[in-house]
From TrEMBL:
Name assigned to this protein: Bifunctional glutamine synthetase adenylyltransferase/adenylyl-removing enzyme
Lineage top rank: taxon: Bacteria
InterPro entries for this protein: GlnE, GlnE_rpt_dom, NT_sf, PII_UdlTrfase/GS_AdlTrfase
Alphabetical list of HAMAP family matching this protein: GlnE
Adenylyl removase as annotated region, ranges: 1-456
Residue stretches making up the PII-uridylyltransferase/Glutamine-synthetase adenylyltransferase domain: 313-451, 837-934
Cofactor(s) needed for function: Mg(2+)
Residues covered by the Glutamate-ammonia ligase adenylyltransferase repeated domain: 61-281, 571-821
PANTHER family noted in UniProt: BIFUNCTIONAL GLUTAMINE SYNTHETASE ADENYLYLTRANSFERASE_ADENYLYL-REMOVING ENZYME, GLUTAMINE SYNTHETASE ADENYLYLTRANSFERASE
This protein's GO CC annotations: cytosol
Swiss-Prot/TrEMBL GO biological process terms: regulation of glutamine family amino acid metabolic process
Catalytic activity: [glutamine synthetase]-L-tyrosine + ATP = [glutamine synthetase]-O(4)-(5'-adenylyl)-L-tyrosine + diphosphate; [glutamine synthetase]-O(4)-(5'-adenylyl)-L-tyrosine + phosphate = [glutamine synthetase]-L-tyrosine + ADP
Family according to the record: Belongs to the GlnE family.
GN (gene name): glnE
């Protein structure tokens, strides 16, 4: 009998090729054995049936042909026996992990190949094939579990609880494995559990959690790892508590606590099919029963559970939206009228009714359907229609997966592949199978639409729906291509990075641990966030920068409500975070600042120095004056809020560069004055006041140097300050705990620094640098005005006189501040040897450049590079020191730009030269501010600012040679 008579012409080429490949691989003896079985003269019908089955299987499954080619004796076994059986490997004969993996993979490939043969040959129906594949999974899991447990016990001893009882491990099978419905290329969804914490009793003991985690990891590797022999099963652990971010194994008390406090409706839905599929250790059977009893109240309520209807309705709506959005016409699992819809019909009724109707608490869908009809939950005849439709879809699913041993449920688009599939399943042509599929899916679709139907359903799929669906299923591998396309089209590029960020958040343990209300708010926020992010210039950047903020407010979900109910806040938030990681980081560390964004007008309205000082006074009036900690926190909150406003005004263009520095400087001055007032109150309460001092005139002033002195403060700048007093140092304060005046002002300065620098929950106010005081770190923290003058006239280095150019009083005694300004002017206007000054300035500049300049052939250091900011500052300082004797007006101001303008007004520098330096200085500082907001170093490409650098270098040569 020729096999060709059972093969239609359109498949003969493929069959011939695969048959010849098999014959060449196994040798003449095996070919003869199979042919003899096919030509059995005792039963012509049997012979014809076997021949027809062999041809269908070879046409329908390349996987089958490959496996039978690798194992020559398999095909004869399949043809000659009604059932090759399934027996567990002998663990005692397995000496290594590699051997275990090989044995399990060979067993898996043999059983899968037999399931393909029995199905295509018409010897097994789908329940029989699924039952055998489920049995295979149970055997493989149990074998791997037992083998690895034995090795763990040898190394670490038996895990025991605190009473010394050995602790078993129970493996829960979820989904199709739990329901005994496993198909050819299914993943297996598992949850690992053990009863109680404790420690193992070996020479190298482990805590039970670590012991069972290692056991679980080794079990997964033995099943999931891809070797030369393939894999056994892909293992999915995402259904465990907290998903991927949760512990791999949980003890019973932790499971119970999670499901009672954190469990969500979809987890109840999934738990319907859960059952122990493997267990190991003394008392394992009792432990498995105990675990199921523990989970039952979570899965099934003791009443008809109408509370779950809204959650099920959301699940159903999500399914429908996915189908509409993605056009899953050819997907027999996820598409309209597909396998998933049959499962939903059954499990929805089980979840609602299973608490009062224990008969419905069965896992296998084919057993549930008739019970639902019997109980009046399905119309008469519907159960049989659904059963038949479901079995057809599952058989087609088997046929699809049998071809390449791949997890797919999508009908092939190629006509020849469709014809091969139909032939393997016993149809003469594709049109016959297609007709049955259309009818079956129509039955399912009709029943699905009747299950907990929402009051109204829109047929239109909206942009919001798409983002809802993406967020809800961003972790699912089968949805990945669709979501990548959606993200790419919305401007999230690279889309894979955006999807990974979303999946990481979705699966994060902190998200899984949210209470129901918090999770609902997050689920409302994310689609809004994605839609808003798609409107900014760099959606991925905005998303990545705003997610840390989102994580920081998850447990304070009132902020999620603020975002959800205020679309302008969300839009502005994304714009600001996209423009500046500095802003994003500030908001993530201090989410309370989101309140600042409620008033968009105020957020972007620049303030004057007086506005900031007045706002701070009003802010501090709301704080208990006796509570220093609260006052320190209030100062920090105010600073953070103002800093956010200034940064927002900068990135939106509401505030130009020079005004940004002004605003940041005014903010620092207001906070210094307020902090000094607090410090004064504390120190005077304890020690009294120096003679002649008062809260209005403390006889103490804070002198600003550097950027603060020059009104050029940037985001995150330190404060360079020096403390000056003019009290008699040998006199004492008038309090009960009197101290000398120098000690008083030293303690005042120390208390002020404490208020500014202490890292409270909100961080420090400012980092303070006092090293510019006379004699630096070796000098007194506070100096008298007379001592300051003496040091500057007799001991100060030229670079200290340079620093004096940018000094000014910023807080404290106004009288003393005026006296300091007068002294500063005298010191700067002193006569100097210009040649010596020039040499010392150049020498100091060269030292700084050697130690600090990060420029090279490819990059330019904005601050320290040749022709950069410091060169301009040094020229300004040189000019001030060299020429102030002739024109005192040039040292009236402390900022570089107004000094340069003063040099022009005094006729000491050509207007065009000063203008070029001012333009270069503004350009450098503007870029420096931009980089600071991007949290990047002040270094740019070497080909930037070439004209500016040339101008500065030329002027340097002219002034300083």
């Amino acid at each position: 009998m020729s096999l060709m008579e059972f093969c239609p012409p359109q498949h003969q080429t493929l069959f011939t090729q695969r048959w010849e490949d098999w014959c060449a691989a196994v040798g003449a003896e095996q070919v003869a054995a199979v042919e003899a079985l096919l030509d059995d003269g005792n039963s012509l019908a049997l012979s014809r049936g076997l021949s027809r089955g062999l041809v269908r299987t070879f046409v329908g499954s390349d996987f089958f042909v490959q496996q039978c080619s690798r194992h020559p004796e398999w095909l004869a076994g399949f043809v000659g026996q009604e059932d090759c059986g399934l027996s567990a490997p002998e663990l005692a004969e397995i000496e290594s992990e590699e051997q275990l993996e090989k044995v399990l993979r060979n067993l898996r490939n043999r059983v899968n190949a037999e399931a393909v043969w029995r199905d295509f040959a018409g010897q097994w129906d789908i329940p029989a094939a699924c039952g055998r594949l489920t049995e295979l999974a149970e055997v493989c899991i149990q074998c791997a579990l037992d083998w690895h447990r034995g090795k763990m016990v040898e190394r670490h001893g038996e895990p025991r609880n605190r009473d010394g009882d050995i602790q078993p491990m129970v493996v829960l099978g979820m989904g199709k494995l739990g329901a005994r419905e496993l198909n050819l290329s299914s993943d297996i969804d598992l949850i690992f559990a053990y009863p109680e914490p404790g420690q193992s009793d070996g020479e190298k003991p482990l805590e039970n959690q670590a012991w069972f985690q290692r056991l679980g990891q080794r079990l997964i590797k033995s099943l999931d790892a891809v070797t030369a022999d393939g894999f056994v099963f892909r293992v999915d652990m995402r259904l465990r508590p907290y998903g991927d971010s949760g512990p791999l194994v949980s003890h019973y008390a932790a499971l119970e606590d999670y499901y009672q406090t954190q469990g969500r409706e979809w987890e109840r839905y999934a738990m319907i099919k859960a059952r122990p599929v493997a267990m190991s250790g003394e008392g394992a059977a009792d432990a498995a029963e105990e675990l199921m009893e523990l989970l039952r109240p979570f899965t099934y309520r003791r009443y008809i559970d109408f509370s779950v209807i809204d959650a099920l309705r959301e699940m159903k709506t999500l399914i429908q939206r996915q189908v509409r959005a993605r056009g899953l016409i050819d997907n027999i699992k996820l598409g309209r009228g597909g396998i998933r819809e049959v499962e939903f019909i059954a499990q929805a009724f089980q979840l609602i009714r299973g608490g009062r109707e224990p008969d419905l608490r069965v896992r296998n869908i084919l057993k549930v359907l008739p019970l639902l009809e019997l109980g009046g939950h399905l119309p008469e005849g519907a159960a049989q229609e659904l059963r038949d439709a479901y079995l057809l879809l599952r058989r087609v699913e088997h046929g699809l997966q049998a071809e390449k041993d791949q997890q797919t449920q999508t009908l092939p688009p190629e006509p020849e592949r469709r014809e091969q599939l139909a032939f393997a399943l016993g149809y003469d042509q594709w049109s016959e199978l297609e007709s049955e599929l259309v009818a079956a899916r129509a039955h399912i679709e009709r029943e699905f639409d009747e299950v907990i139907a929402p009051p109204e359903e829109s047929g239109e799929i909206t942009s919001s729906d798409n983002w809802d669906m993406l967020w809800a299923s961003c972790e699912r591998d089968e949805e990945r291509d669709n979501w990548l396309e959606q993200l790419h089209e919305a401007g999230f590029q690279p889309a894979a990075k955006a999807l990974e960020a979303l999946a990481n958040l979705h699966g994060d343990r902190i998200v899984a641990a949210l209470p129901a209300a918090g999770r609902q708010r997050l689920d409302q926020t994310m689609p809004l966030l994605l839609a808003a992010a798609s409107e900014v210039s760099e959606p991925l950047l905005a998303l990545e920068r705003v997610l840390p903020l989102l994580r920081s407010i998850l447990r304070r979900s009132a902020y999620l409500v603020l975002i959800n109910e205020n679309p302008p806040v969300l839009a502005q938030l994304l714009r600001l975070c996209s423009a500046s990681p500095w802003i994003a980081d500030l908001l993530a560390r201090h989410p309370i600042l989101l309140d600042e964004m409620l008033d968009q007008r105020r957020l972007l309205q620049p303030s004057t120095a007086q506005d900031i000082a007045d706002d701070l006074r009003q802010h501090m009036l709301r704080v208990d004056p006796e509570d220093l900690e609260a006052q320190m926190e209030a100062l920090r909150h105010f600073k953070q809020g103002q800093s956010l406003r200034i940064a927002a005004q900068e990135v939106t263009g509401a505030l130009p560069l020079m005004k940004v520095s002004d605003s940041l400087t005014w903010l620092a001055e207001a906070i210094l004055q307020q902090a000094l007032t607090l410090a004064w109150q504390q120190v005077t309460e304890k020690h009294g006041m120096p003679e002649g001092a008062s809260a209005e005139d403390m006889r103490f002033t804070i002198v600003a140097y550097g950027k603060l002195g020059g009104l050029e403060l940037g985001h995150g700048s330190d404060l360079d300050i020096v403390f000056v007093h003019d009290a008699e140092t040998h006199q004492y304060t008038d309090g009960e705990r009197s101290i000398d005046n120098l000690s008083f002002y030293t303690r005042l300065a120390q208390r002020l620094i404490h208020i500014l620098q202490t890292r409270t929950l909100s961080g420090p106010l400012y980092e303070v640098d006092t090293r510019l005081r006379p004699s630096g770190n070796s000098g007194l923290l506070v100096t008298s005005l007379a001592a300051f003058e003496k040091y500057q006239r007799e001991s100060a280095w030229t670079w200290e006189h340079q620093a004096l150019v940018r000094t000014r009083p910023v807080a404290g005694s106004e009288r003393l501040g005026l006296a300091f300004e007068s002294l500063r002017k005298q010191l700067l206007c002193a006569a100097r040897d210009e040649q010596k000054l020039r040499e010392e300035v150049v020498e100091m500049r060269n030292k700084m450049r050697a130690h600090l300049d990060k420029s090279n052939d490819r990059q330019f250091d904005l601050k320290h590079g040749s022709g950069g900011i410091v060169d301009i500052e040094f020229m300004v300082q040189y000019a001030s020191l060299a020429w102030a004797q002739r024109a005192p007006s040039i040292v009236r101001y402390t900022d570089n730009i107004r000094i340069l303008e003063s040099l022009t007004e005094a006729g000491l520098m050509p207007a065009h030269q000063a203008a070029h330096l001012i333009d270069a200085y503004k350009a450098y500082r503007s870029e420096g501010h931009r980089l600071a907001l991007q949290q990047r170093p002040g270094v740019v490409s070497g080909d930037q600012f070439e004209a500016e650098r040339k101008t500065v270098e030329t002027t340097w040569q002219q002034m300083l040679g």
